Amino acid sequence: MAAVNKEMLDELRGELTYKRKNVYTNATEEDLVKINDYAKLYCEYLDAAKTEREAVKKSIEIASAAGFKPYDFGDKIEVGGKYYYNNRGRALYLFAIGSENIENGIRISAAHIDSPRLDLKQNPLYDEGNMGFLKTHYYGGIKKYQWTAIPLALHGVIITGDGKSVDVCIGEDDSDPVFYINDLLPHLGADQMSKTASQIIPGEKLNILVGSIPLGDDSSDIKLGILKLLSEKYGIKEEDFLSAEISAVPAFKARDIGFDRSIIGAYGHDDRVCAYPALSAIIETEKPVHTLMTILADKEETGSGGNTGMKSDIFTDLIAEISAALGANERKVRANSKCLSADVNAIFDPNFADVYETKNSAFLNCGVVMSKYTGARGKSGTSDASAEMVAFIRDLFAKEGVIWQSAELGKVDQGGGGTVAVYIANHNIEVIDLGVGVISMHAPYEAISKADLYMAYKAFLAFNK
Hints:
Blueprint: H1 6-16, H2 29-48, H3 52-65, E1 69-70, E2 82-87, E3 91-96, E4 106-112, E5 117-128, E6 131-139, E7 152-159, E8 165-170, E9 180-181, H4 190-193, H5 197-200, E10 208-211, H6 222-234, E11 244-250, E12 255-257, E13 263-266, H7 269-284, E14 291-297, H8 314-325, H9 330-335, E15 338-341, E16 345-346, E17 368-371, E18 375-376, H10 387-400, E19 404-406, E20 416-417, H11 421-425, E21 430-435, E22 437-438, E23 446-449, H12 450-464
Parallel strand pairs: 1-2, 4-14, 4-15, 15-21, 16-22, 17-19
Antiparallel strand pairs: 2-3, 3-14, 5-6, 5-11, 6-10, 7-8, 7-11, 9-10, 12-13, 13-23, 17-21, 18-20
Helix pairs in contact: 2-12, 7-12, 10-12
């Protein structure tokens, strides 16, 4: 074997070793301004969109201002047109018809806009011990103990017996009251603290404190006092809870974290930290060559079921409508389409390093995260992107200056998680997972890097090209 000098070894190491790049390492002042300006817009979106209904409403507002028009089945579709389909107020499909033959495929970005939370039960209101409560059923994967002793807001809609729709949002304005879930004081918590973390707060103890003043002379009639207030403010009766969708979410605002303000703390990064860049990218792609579609889906946190989840036929129905309107073969359109399954990954946390495999973990500030596969343990529940799709993304990002990193969700046997990728791949579409890394995922207050957020935005823009 021929002798190798030090310069050649350094060159080989540089070429053969996959290295993450910190976004801030060579960032210019102009880059920093762009990162921070985009983060401000994202925070405004987060604070306005704490539920899927609010995210759809806010996204339509943004899309309409950019020239997107509402679409219904049978409407005319033409090249250059920009449309959105509002699926029951809980999921949104935006599409822009490109100049090239649609049989070359659609560029699809699919995020979800639901997040873990507490939903009110259908018969929620009761009083006990001179306190009024609302019973809840938690939605998605949460650590139940994290939801006690923090300020909560109520968001949702009530459909009254006479068909009137009443929007509810209490706890977000500084003048609003907030709501609360009681926890046990440590002085009496010996038995509680001996339990495992999953048992410290059972689901049936996630009851929201909503008042304490009784109605009339009966000091125990707290429930009637609350019902009187609800009747006066919203014109609703107790039975109207049966036809309501009301969620309790953290009342926190999105805020900068750290002396350098490089991190954003907020509720609902999973998955609006991918939904907003995907939305921004389709809005800002002028005169697209490819036909573009951005999906903001519901129900991902509970398995993507239902008529607003990614398993719904609405996805392929829309592709069929677009294909027919443009005289294209729908099967060929799907076979040639590519999709970014826009969902989050976990950021390596040195405080819990034992559950991560560092060579295949995402690191803060090292860019958007690409995951060839997700799933659990033996890749259960994943679509596993093809090598060709990975190569396509690598080449694309290299050309467009997108800083990215490759990662799995922790060590193989620690658990894992799924995304909507598998449901899209089932329709013969090339899919790969791409999103932002999150600290404290599924907690009431998660954290993400502003730099990683901005690189996600650049990634979706590049994909749309």
